[in-house]
Structure formats: structure tokens, C-alpha cells
Amino acid sequence: MKCRNTIVAVVLSFMITAGLQAWAQDDPYQALRRYDFQERASLAAIQKEIVAARGSAQRLGAIEVKLIGVLSDASATFGGKQEACKLLSSMGSARSVPALQRMLAGDARTADAARYALERIPGPEASAALRSALSTARGAARVGIINSIGVRRDGAAVTALAKLVSSSDSALRAAALEALGAIGTEPALDTLLKARSSARRDGAVSHALLRCASGLARSGKQARAQSVYTLLVCAGQPAYVRVTALRGLAGIGASNAVAVALAGLKDSNAYVRRGAAQVLAESKRADVTAKAIAAFGSASPEAQVVLLTGWATRGEPQAASAALGALSSQDAEVRAAAIRAAARTAGARAVAPLAEIAAQSGNDGNVAREALAGMAGAPTAQAIVRLAREGKPEVRAALMGVLAERPGAASLAALLEGARAESPIVAVAALRGIGAVGGADEAAPVTAILAATTHDEVREAAGRAVVACAQRSGQRDQAVTAIVGALANASSDARITLLGALAEIGGDRALEELKSAAASADPDVRRAAVRGLADTWTDSAPAPLLLNIAQNDASAAVRIIALRGYIRLIAQDGGIPAGAKIEALEQALRAAQRPDEKRQAFGALRDCREERAASALAAYLEDADLAVEAAEAILDLAAPQKRNNRDLPAVKGAAMTAALDAIIQKISDAGIKERAQKLK
Amino acid sequence: MQGDNALDRRTLLKRAAATGAGLGLFHIVPASALGLGGRIAPSNRITIGCIGMGGMGMGNLGAFLGQPDTQVVAVCDVDRNHLNNARAAVNRHYGNEACAAYADFRELLARGDLDALSLATPDHWHAIPAVMAMDAGLDVYGEKPISHCLAEGRAMANAQKRNGRIWQTGSWQRSVGNFRFACELVRNGRIGKVVRIEVGLPTGSPTGPVQFKDPPPELDYDFWVGPSRWQPYCDNRTHWNWRWQLDYGGGQLMDWIGHHGDIAHWGMGWDNTGPIEIEGTGEYPTSGIWDAATRYYFVATYRGGVEMHVANGGNQGIRGGTKWIGADGRWVWVDRGGIDANPKSLLRERIGPDEIQLFRSPGHQREFLDCVKTRRPTTTPAETAHRSASIGHLGQIAMIVGRKIRWNPETEQILNDAAASRLLSTPMRAPWRL
Asked: How large is the ipTM?
């Protein structure tokens, strides 16, 4: 019987222990007690409970009690307590305060954890707990408590904080001053003013006063705020305090703000001058702006920059004359600011003076062109177009670039008119602009200009423009039609440019025209056509023609251009099978008269990963000028290569072995021989 | 110029650093003499200090070193290796040994000769140095997302406005042509009335179990943790990987919302506003140290009913990048290196001077420097960056509380949800404060 009872007791004990263990494992509050800074399943579970309990004081209360239990459990980890405090910070009530208050008396970390919750828990109990702890806590914990009182703006703490303002502990004193500033009530202000009377030039007090004044202003006590700001705006305070105080005065619309700001424009300190100018420039009141404009002429350059920039930012029309007048300032920064301000404040009146500046090189010209490009309004647009048509050539040229930045039919029309101008600088600038913004419709008139002009630079600019128009619009046919139409009657110079444009534009029709021109009796035209095909064309369609020219043209120079173009087109055409490509390159090698073109072909052969390429190269191993390059190309073929993110295989086989043997036999360079030997 | 403001800033800063106080109470005299173009004497350049010399910090440093009118005079990092690397890069560039190096950013800010700050710390270390710098009169180029929580973003935007400072966020996509053009198309009605926006961001990943250990000797780990909750050191905790941990970053969501979410706002002209409702779900790893959502999807609804769908790439069929969809099916999509539209002809459109033309940037860092001189607000001021980050922060809150939240973008309050409202700010570890 006794034995049976013992067994039952053991079994029961085991069951209870196992049950407790299971409970402890499942219960997130138990797990929280063991929290190790990384297993957060318990936190997630409790947070889920909190979310689910929303609206139920009873359920939230139950959770809170359990979390308080964690705080009160001596065996709970610091991590667990810290997380419990965080959870309580989001849902704790006065019920949690006693446990948290006890933690305030602990070490700094524990006090920090408790404050995390107390700072967020609303109600007088939490505030009282912090105030109470103020007298007992020490060191960083005490500073933290003062900080939390400041965050909570606890007006009831002013008396206690006042005692700390005279503390010899600078950290405590600084914290108390800031907390008083944050509290921002009249008693807090009185305390700070008393502190100031004993430490007039103490930046900590000034800072707290500024903060306090801000709080007073927010709560409708403008007069007291003004008295503080007025106190701090005077000379003797640090520049940053004075400027912030001035901004405070302006922010509450204080009667003395404008006078102080105007006086600040003449201050000996540049920081104050800028700050004063900023305040004046930010004011939208007409009377303030008028006074600032009156003071503008005598203001320092840095203050003028700030005033002009502020007026520009809000497009202040009153400031137009000041801005226009400042365009001739001796100070480069003032001039730049004046240009921007004139553009934003003076409307069409600014166009002529800004256009004059835009015609200059250097920073002023750049700023003026940018400013003109962004000027809004129909009168302004009309003024720009008018000057672009009627101004002196330098101004017209500058405005062509401006018009290109101003989309619209009027701009395009003025650009086309400019492109026809007699002045080459105007025409070139206009054509550059058309190239930047023109479409298919501009191709024909630009081509006509190209064909008609006698100026080389205009012709070249027109050529670039027509290509750009065709490419941007994607409508090549329109441009090609225009060019082909112009070719027949064009001068030799024009035909050369037109053919170059055709090559850049591309397409079947362009190719036919170029082929036809390549047979021209006019050597210059023939050469231009060949160059277009050889240097610019993008597929291998003209390759046979180029090879023929390379083999047969009377001009050696044309033959070279054609051959180089042929090799280029063959090499870059990925659609040609390697065998055919090698054959084509062998033809090129046969046609080549000079080592340069043969080397170019060698380079192309390196990408033809077939034995025949090696054989073709081996034929040059006895050529004194080319043997080394040929050998290097063979070695390149014999080893795997990586080019342009492509893996190229090594070429193997009898022909390659023969080529490597030939290198060993015929090349004197020991290094090359050795590499060939290794690759065999 | 320092004589004008010869207050006891250095003393105060040193004292603050020694006591661990969070705020350096000092003034800075910006080196205000600025030149224009050409070779500019070092004494007339914009003087820059750099805090945070990891990957982004070094990238930004390189950009600033490349500008003729800047002089990087100091660098700062809590990792000695990063610090030495940065200092060597600066000295190599200028061919001297003049660059100062600091482990404590408060000492850098206390130098007294800085005009501007380049800030590329982890997210949890953005707000404090940024506000300190702006309160002390410095202009700031700061990395995105601007903030680690909504309250910090608001504080930074307020600090910029209060002090009249220049702020440029590292949301550099606004300085790239295809993003600007996409936004101009949307702004100028080329796709008609926008009814839906899709923002596709990268997908996150968890870690396996980690071994906690002592931090390496070159790293001041406690300073690195700074205002955030303390967690033990381990590999994958700090450099670069901080962003996958909610105590220090915000996962891929927050890492990218300041880019593609920012572009979505730019296209809509929503630089100073935000959604009114947010609802969504996220999947959070329950083991390992990375706890930010790896998969996420939320919908932010704006006034007028426009919905912004934010998801990790591919989730809900949302493509990476930013896509605006019009009521009649026309759309514009943009991402790094790509732009597309329906119809395609939209891509050939040109924006005229009488239309909305967005700022044509001379380069993101260059624009910042120009604005330092002229005081013109940058393309990405703190308010704008705060609003861009707000999309992500609100999405995070909605995913955590598991319900739709309603948001007033004017007052920046969550409506009728006290529990969710508590998540708008993040308490700071002592002695740090904002």
C-alpha cells in the first residue's frame, strides 16, 4: 500500500512538473521572464493579446497585471523586464506606476527601462512618480528623469527643477534648464529669467529661454514670448541666439521685428546679416518688402544674395527694380542671384537685360540662359521670340539655346527662322536647338538649309540636326526623302554632308543612294559615300560593295577606307557564320596592301573560333611585319577567352596544332614559343 | 569672427561631454565668407564637419570633397577604424594633416568654425546631433529617413524653421532627371486625376541565432547605442545592419520610404502633408536580433481618396519603385535607372515654362551648398523629409497596433486611439534628450 502510494505520488509529481513545464513553455509571460534579446515569440504573443484586447479594460488590465508580474519577479532577466516596460509603455496605466517607480531607484539601465514606460503612460500618477524620484535618484538616472519630465511638460515640476538650476552638477543643471524650456509655462519662464540674471551670457539659459518662448507663443502668450525674444535678440548674445530670437519675433508678428531685422542687415556679424535678410525676404507683407527694398542698396553682398533669392523664390513683383538694378553688381554672387530674381519678379521687362547677359560666356551667361528658359507667361515668351528674331547676332544666338528649352510651336518657328539667318553663329545655334527638339517635320527645311548654305559650320550643324530630327522622331523616310531630293542639285560640299547624314540615318533607301554615290565620277562625292558606308553604316549590307571598291577603286585612299569599313562590318555582324566570316576576312587579307589593315583583319579573326582562322593567320608567320601579331592571334584562338561577358572556347584540332608548331618553328620570341608549346 | 560671439561654448561643450549631458549649449560662428566658382581659398570655403563615417558618410564625404567651395575640416565617428579611415581620406584629398577627428560629436560641433554638417549616423542618432547643430546655427545635410520616430522628425523640422537653417535630406532621387520628369508628368496632369499610387520597396530578412560578446575595442558601443534601448553587442548589430533593428532603424520600409515614398509625395505635391488613414500588416521575425518587418503591406489614404499602397517588392503585385495611376488607366512608373508610362508617348512629352517645373538640381550635395549661400530652401528640407518618413512611421504604427489608424496631418495627431498615439515618440536613454 505504502509502495503504491509512493508510486502514485511520484507519478503525480512528474505530471505536475511536466504540466508546469509545458505551461511555462506555452505561457509567453513566463518566456518573457527568460527573454534573451533574440527569441521574441513571447513578445509577439503578448503583443497579439494586446491587439486583441483593445476596447476591453478587463482584458487589458489582466495583461498589465501579468507584465507587472514580470517587473516584480527578481528572477526575470533584464531583457525581459526591458521588454515588459516597452509593452507597458504602449498600454500601461496608473496600475503599473508603482512597479515602475521602484525600478527608477535601480541602476541606470533599469531606470531607463522604467522611464521608457513612464514617459509614455498618461496621467498624473506617472508624472508624480517621476517628480518623486527626482529627489532620490542620482547620476544619469536623475538626468533621465528630468528629461522625461521635460518631455511630459510637467508644469508641477517647475519648483523642483528650479532648485536644480543652480546645481553645481553641470549635467543636472543643463537638463533642468532644458526641461524648464520644454515645459514652456510662465512659472518656467520666471525661473529661467532668474537663472539668466545670474548668468546672463550662459548659452544654456539662452537656449532654454528660446524654447520656453516658443512654447509660450504656441499657447497664446505672445507678449511674454516677445519679451523673451527681445531680450535675446540684442548684441552680446551669440549670433545664433540673436537670429533665432529675431525669427521668433517675426513668427509672432511682433511690432519690433521689422526694425530689428532692418538693423540686423547692418550688423557687424555676417551670420546675423544673413539671418536678418532671410527674415525680411520670407515676409510676404508688402510694407516689410518695401522697407527691405529700400534697405537693399546699402545691404552687404551676402545679405543682398539672400534677399534676392527669397524674392525670387516667391516671385515678389515689388522687388523687380531691385533685382534689375543688381544685375550690374560688382559681386558675382549678387549678380547670379539678381539674374534669377529678375527672371522671377520682373516678367517681360527682364527679357532684354537677361538676353544681353545670356550672350556672355561664363557663369552669368549660363545663369541667364537657364533663367530665361524657365520664365513663364505669354508676354515673356513673346519678348523672347521677338528678341530671338530681331536682336543682335550674339543675343539671337544665345536665345536659340533658350528657345530649345521652351517647347512649343512659337519656339520652333523662331528656331527655324534663326536657322535661316545670315549670321552663321545664329544659324548654328538655331540648328543646334532644332537638333535638340525638332521632329520629322523639321527634316525638310533643315535639309534645304543644308543644301543652300555657303557656310561650312552651318552645313555641318544642319547635317547633325537633320540626323537628330530623324532619329528622335523615328521617321527616317521623311528625312531620307528630303535628303535624296536635295542631293540632285546640291553643291559638292553639300552632297558630302548629305551623304554623311544618310549614312547616319540608315535604311534601304539611304543605302541605295549611298551605293549610287559611291560610283560617282566626282571623287569627293565618291569618297564621302564610301566613308559613310565604311565608317557609319551599321550592318554588313554594303560589305560586298566595299570589298569591290577596296579591290578596284582608282584612289588608294578610297581603297583603304573601303577595306577598313569592310573588315569592320564583317567583324561586327554576329549573323555571319564563322566559316563565312573567315572566308570574307581572307579576302580582305588578300586585298590589303598595308600591314595596318591586315592587323585589323587579324583582330577580327581572333573572334572566329575555328581552325581555319588559325590556318589563315599561320600564313603570316613568316611576314617580318606581321609574324608576332599573327602568332598572338593564333595563341588567342588556342586558349579559352572571355570577352564582353562571353566565353569563347579554345580552338583545337590538327590545323591548330600545325599552326602552333609553325609558331614554335618560325617565331624567335622565347615567350611566344613557350606559350605555343604549352597550348599544344 | 569668433570674437563676435566669444561665449563659453567650448567650455560648455567640454563640460557637457564630460558629464554625458545630451545637449551641448554653445554657439557656433559659421565661417561665413563664401566665394563663387573657380579656385577658392580655404579660408573662404564652406567649412563642413562630418558625423558618421560609415558607408553613406564616406559617400557624402567624397561628394563634398569634390566641390571647389567646401573645406571638410573635421570628421567624427564612434568607431575608431571608421574615424581613421575618414580622416585619412580627407587629408589625402587636401594633401595635409589638418583634418580633425572626434569620437564625440559634441566636440566636433563645439569647434566654432563650421558652417555646415554632414550627418550620416544610424537612424536613432539623427535627431539629437541634427537639432543641436541647427540650434547652434549650422546648416545640415542629413541622411534619410530623417527620423527614427514621428516626434523626432517634427522636432527636426521645427528646429530648421525656428533657426532658419538649410537642410538637405539624402533623398537624392529628387536630383535625378528621370525621377523629376516622372513627377513633372504627374504634377502637370499628364495621367489625369491620380487615384492610386504604388510604392514598392525591398524585402527584409531575419538573422539566425547570434552569440553576444564584448564589442570590439575600436567601437564605443555604449555611445553607439546612445539614446536607444540597450541591447548586448553581437555581430550584425551595428554597422550597416542597425537598419534591420527597430531600436536603431526601421527595416527596409524605413530605409527606402525616404526614397520611393518621397518621390510619390513629390509627384503629388504633398511635401507638407500626409495621409489621413493608414492600415496594413507586417511580418516580424520572432528570433534572431533583426526584428524589423521583412514582409509588409499597408495602404495610406489621403484626402480626396487617393490610396498609396506601400509594400515590399512583389508583395500584392507591387513593383519596386513608384507608380502613379490615373483614373483612366494612364500611369507613370519610375525607379533608379528606369521610367515607364502608359501610354509610352508620355515619355516624349516636354514640360513648358508655363507648367509646373520642378527644380533641376545641379547635384544633390551641390544644391545644398548653393542653398547654404543663398538661403533658398533645398529640394528636400526637413519638413518634406519628415512628411516622407511619416508614411513609413505611420505604417509601422498601424502594423504594430494591428488596426486602421486615423491621422490628422495638420496637427500630426492620431485620432481616437490613445494607445497608438503613444508610439509617436520614443523615450530616450539617459542622459540623451532632444
From this structure: 0.91
